[in-house]
Each structure stands twice: as structure tokens, then as C-alpha cells.
Design a protein that fits this description.
The chain is α/β, with parallel strands linked by helices. The chain has 5 helices and 5 strands, in the order βααβαβαββα. It has helices spanning 21-24, 29-43, 55-67, 85-93, 132-142, and strands at 4-9, 46-51, 72-76, 98-102, 124-127. The protein is globular and about 40 Å long. The model has no long low-confidence stretch (mean pLDDT 97). Bound molecules: ligand CA2.
């Protein structure tokens, strides 16, 4: 197993910090990557941060995380959280632990965000803390 933690981000998260800061905060994905890299260094880990707008790409990256011996995956599937049985199956199909991460708390938002398929298979979920959700999730990797 390697010390690399994959941090996979789903659709529209490339716009983070540019729109809807009242929901998602004003940090960009690059800001979050920089915070994670600092914290990972302290923990003796490395970060591989990625974003895609395509569901199948997230599935491929989950398979890759396992094939490459990643320590864990932090996964913010964005809207695919609430729709994707393909992602649920992929999280179940790999042995690499997956921590589900959300900036907001979907359970306090619209009813269609209350269901999380990924959450059914994730080792843990960290949500509702803004960018800090990713840092708390990374700390949790060190405790897995
Ligand atoms: O709170 C989260 O992290 C979410 O995964 C974000 C998703 C949403 O569909 C989930 O229910 C909860 C949305 C990501 C969209 O990101 C945007 C960023 C800036 C402007 C608009 C959307």
C-alpha cells in the first residue's frame, strides 16, 4: 500500500468559490488542495486531487485507486451522491476505504439530497463543515 490518498471530486465542483459561496464557501478546489497537501505532509501522506464532471470517470478513478494501492479515497461525488448506483457498486467493489465528503450537509437541504447511495458503502461520511470537511476526512484516514 502507498501513502497516497486520492481526493475525487464530482460534477460542478470545478466552480467552487466562484458561485453560491453562501452554500459552499469561498475556497476554490485549488485552495482545498493546498490545505490538504499541507495537512497530508504533517501526517506523512500524499494527496492526488482530481475533479471530473463525468460519472464513469469517477468509477474508473475508484478502480485505479485500488489498482495503485492508494491508502484511501476521499470522495465528494457531488450530485451523483444522490443518484449513482454505479458509484455505490464501485465503492463496494474495491477494498480501498472510501470516505464520503460534503461541504454542505445534504440532510438539511432539499429532500432530493437526503438519499446518499455512496454513503451506503462509505467507511465514513464527513459533511457540513465547508472546506474543513476534507481536512477532517483526511485526519480520519490516519485513524483507519
Ligand atoms: O455539499 C457538497 O459537497 C455537495 O456534494 C455539493 C454538490 C451537491 O449536489 C451535493 O448535494 C452536496 C454540488 C456541487 C456543485 O458545486 C457548485 C460549486 C459552485 C457553484 C455551484 C455548484
Amino acid at each position: 500500500m502507498t501513502d497516497t490518498v486520492y481526493v475525487l471530486n464530482g460534477p460542478n465542483l470545478n466552480l467552487l468559490g466562484l458561485r453560491e459561496p453562501e452554500i459552499y464557501g469561498s475556497d476554490t478546489l485549488d485552495d482545498i488542495a493546498a490545505m490538504l497537501e499541507d495537512r497530508a505532509r504533517e501526517l506523512g501522506l500524499a494527496i492526488d486531487m482530481r475533479q471530473t464532471n463525468h460519472e464513469g470517470m469517477l468509477v474508473d478513478w475508484l478502480h485505479e485507486a485500488q489498482a495503485e494501492g492508494a491508502r484511501a479515497v476521499l470522495l465528494n461525488p457531488a450530485a451523483y451522491t444522490h443518484t449513482s448506483i454505479a458509484l455505490l457498486d464501485a465503492v463496494r467493489a474495491i477494498r480501498t476505504p472510501v470516505i464520503e465528503v460534503h461541504l454542505s450537509d445534504p440532510a438539511t437541504r432539499e429532500p432530493f439530497r437526503h438519499q446518499s447511495y455512496v454513503g451506503m458503502a462509505a467507511a465514513r461520511t464527513v459533511k457540513g463543515l465547508g472546506a474543513r470537511s476534507y481536512l477532517v476526512a483526511l485526519d480520519a484516514v490516519a485513524q483507519l
